[in-house]
Amino acid sequence: MAEDTDDSEKTEDPTQKRLDQAHEKGDIPKSQEVSSWFSLLGTALVVFFLAPSMAAGITGILKGFFAHADTIAVDPAALVFLLEITGPEILGVVALPLLTLLVLAVIGNLVQHKPLWTGERMKPKLSKISPLSGGKRLFSKDSLANFLKGLVKITVVATVVFLVLWPERERLDTVVFRETGLVLVEVQELAILVIGAILAFMTVVAGADLVWQRKKWFEKQKMTQQEVKEEYKQSEGDPKIKAKIRELRLQRSRNRMMASVPNATVVITNPTHYAVALQYEEGMGAPTCVALGVDELALRIREVAKEANVPIVENPPLARALYASTELNDYVPEEHYAAVAKVIGYVLQLQKKGSWRS
Fold first, then answer.
1. Looking at the record, which segments are called Disordered (predicted)?
2. Total of domains in the chain
């Protein structure tokens, strides 16, 4: 659904949930140029530090074969025997250079993103084998941009190699007349010069491409306003439904509260704005607030109290103080014990005399 959305409508920054979903699908910002830079760095390290020992090792292994090449049988059995003898030795010589290249290639990916395990990329998709989809990818803006970038890279690298080797042209002309050991040294020095120059150029390319790939990936993850709303509804719930649920809960709570008013001992009022219904029975630690409200709810409490013949006492300061400091179904705060006790005592005394009228 999101893939069919016009990119011009994607004006909102992606949420963390959208970014996490992209990561889970294996969709992460990755620069191939950074990976290439680390591979090139590995090559430079191998040439600079390991090439001499590697060349000496391979030379030592193959020296005898070249010296007695005319006496070595070339039938299949002999070649297999030769491979069994020389294979492990050659592998031992090139193992460290190959391991160096492998480690640098892995680092080239880890510096861009933490390890990620997902099977999403391996799932079969018809779009991957569809000629129409393949044609669209082949002639897309990204493909054209990558093609032009490749041409620029080849041109610049070729220019760099030319500029590095041109001053050494006389040296290259005479290298074939030198001893084998000196030739290897000369080749190593020239290779280090060329790789170093290319590495310097690729450093700029890799840095710029990394910034560009991350910016392009972030832009691709942007969302429309509708997508943001839908995601909010999925994660937090529809605001309209949540408001309705809150309203129902509040209504039920008020219904339960109003059902407790007939059991109150007294209702203390403002008289018009506040109403606090208190219940007290012998043995209770303190009077309990069974209902409280302001304005319309206070009026409803007074009406229910009148119908149930619950005493209503007008005491504006106490009503306001109790409303501000007392929670529903909690005891009256200690600072109001004396004032509440007087009211309840007065009500109970009148009820005993039978002179109270609601």
1. 1-28
2. 2
